[in-house]
Amino acid sequence: MAITPIQTGSPEGKHKIAGLLDRFQDADTGCQATVEDILKAVKTRGDEAVVEYCRRFDAPQMQIDNLQVSTEELRNSYEQVDELFLETLSRAIERIENFHQREMEDSWIQTREDGTIVGRLVRPVDSAGLYVPGGQGGSTPLVSSVLMNGIPAAIAGVGNRIMVTPPNAEGEIDPHLLVAAQEVGITEIYKIGSAWAIAALAYGTATIPRVDVIVGPGNQYVTEAKRLVSGMVRIDMIAGPSEVLIVADGQADAVFIAADMLAQAEHDVQALAILITTSEELASRIPAELERQLAQLSRQDIARRALNDHGVILIAADLEEAIELANDIAIEHLELMIADPWSQIPYIRHAGAIFLGNYTPEAAGDYLAGPNHVLPTMGTARFASALGVETFLKKSSVISYSKAALIEDSDHIQMLAGLEGLTAHAASVARRVAKK
């Protein structure tokens, strides 16, 4: 294993840390021209363009009439999954629903003695597009993406949830995805992927409805398409490579640390796995343990490349330095494998999700714990949050003045309007106050 533990205070350590702090990457614009052409084609030619792209890249026999998953396909999907899957699915849904129900916001009103009423009205968007990646050509159905996007939208009260996911070469969707979608109340599903799916959701076609919010992970073409349509629709985030940072002291288990670094590294070759430890002895054991566990992985080539290219092991002077460095890095997933992880919670300022203790792997959060696994990356945890119910909500201000209240405020409103040179603003108040 090519990762060499380094001291945070060494020249090499300082250089490595500087790179981690400056890891934000602009969206990959290498595919921008291609994606722009796809967006334009779908916007102008609708279903015809969508089917052309689908035939070229996914299902050669796709027809417009087959874009939407049929009622029969939805019904038959239950015959193709086993009871263990249904049991696991039920538990995951229950956990994710229970967590996200706490996120729902309430409308509220304030009243003043002069008769003024102000407040905020919280309402869901009308429709949301949920993108679910194909997962290695459909061979690894990303059921968790269905749940993590579909459940918060349902709790928010979104009336129309539209799911899109690329079909296999036969024009079919994995039954596990179809069952998961139905179990969270999604029945409108289209067999489209990549940038043309994002375009169809953003612009609408004769077959596929236009939506207000688009969420869900994807490849560089999906990401670029989301970037280009953002502003016209809301998107969840522009996500970079997935990442984990483990803070560990001398009591931490090297086997667990290596396992979690590998769990991150197997995502893709750009994945970032970082260990910051106060124990030099522990740090020295990690490379060999990574090598030992690598041999047992189905995606060992991907994981090895990710660790060799991006893996980091840093030795900090003490826990305070390790925690402060974790804050500066503002990681997507932060694991605290230390003797008393709860004692450090008050000092954590920036992290997408925090995993406490030796028996809380990131995988638990990815699938079953309840919190959302769509998290800010590339240091954006300094200001961004996980996807949640609020992603599908919008807020309208409510304002009501009585005549007496407007008279009371009129001079102040007119003064500020005058400073800004907006005489019509001032007049709109003055005319009301002057009216008998």
Explain the overall architecture.
This protein is an alpha/beta fold and 436 residues long. The chain has three domains: 6-25 and 241-369, Nitrogenase molybdenum iron protein domain (Rossmann fold), CATH 3.40.50.1980; 29-235, 3-Layer(aba) Sandwich (Rossmann fold), CATH 3.40.50.1980; 403-434, no CATH class. It has helices spanning 11-21, 32-45, 47-57, 71-77, 83-101, 135-138, 143-156, 175-183, 194-203, 220-229, 254-265, 280-294, 300-310, 319-329, 362-367, 403-419, 423-434, and strands at residues 6-7, 108-111, 117-124, 127-131, 160-164, 188-190, 213-215, 234-235, 243-248, 272-277, 312-315, 331-337, 351-356, 393-400. The strands form three sheets. The protein has a six-stranded parallel sheet with strand order 1-11-10-9-12-13, sandwiched between helices. Strands 6-5-4-7-8 form a five-stranded parallel sheet, sandwiched between helices. A three-stranded antiparallel sheet has the order 2-3-14, with no helix packed on it. Strand 9 (243-248), helix 11 (254-265) and strand 10 (272-277) form a beta-alpha-beta unit. Helix 2 packs across helix 9, helix 2 packs across helix 10 (220-229) and helix 4 (71-77) crosses helix 8 (175-183). The chain is globular, with a radius of gyration of 26 Å.
Helical residues, percent = 40-55%
End-to-end separation: 85 Å
Q: Under the CATH scheme, which class of the largest domain?
A: Alpha Beta
Alpha-beta content class? alpha/beta
Overall 3D form: globular
CATH-assigned fold name of the largest domain: Rossmann fold
Strand order of the largest sheet: 1-11-10-9-12-13
Mean pLDDT: 96
How many beta-strand segments?
Answer: 14
The biggest beta sheet reads:
6 strands, parallel
